[in-house]
Write the structure tokens for this entry.
Amino acid sequence: MEGLQRQTYRNVSGNSPVRFFAIGPSLVCVWFEKDVAYEYNYSHTGREHVETMKRLAQQGRGLASYITKHVSKDYARKF
């Protein structure tokens, strides 16, 4: 993701498969174990979900659970 700063996910619980994230104005990218990444954006995933995911990513807690429960297959692209 050009122009986005990849950040380490804090993983407060200690057992999240999320490793990194990057936030853009209308998207969030999430890197999981084995360096698999997904982009979630307003047009594909929805603004409310993306904004919630941004908040959870910055808090370092609950992101993987949220993705599993609400948007697991609703990503814009996998890379």
Notes: The mean pLDDT is 96.
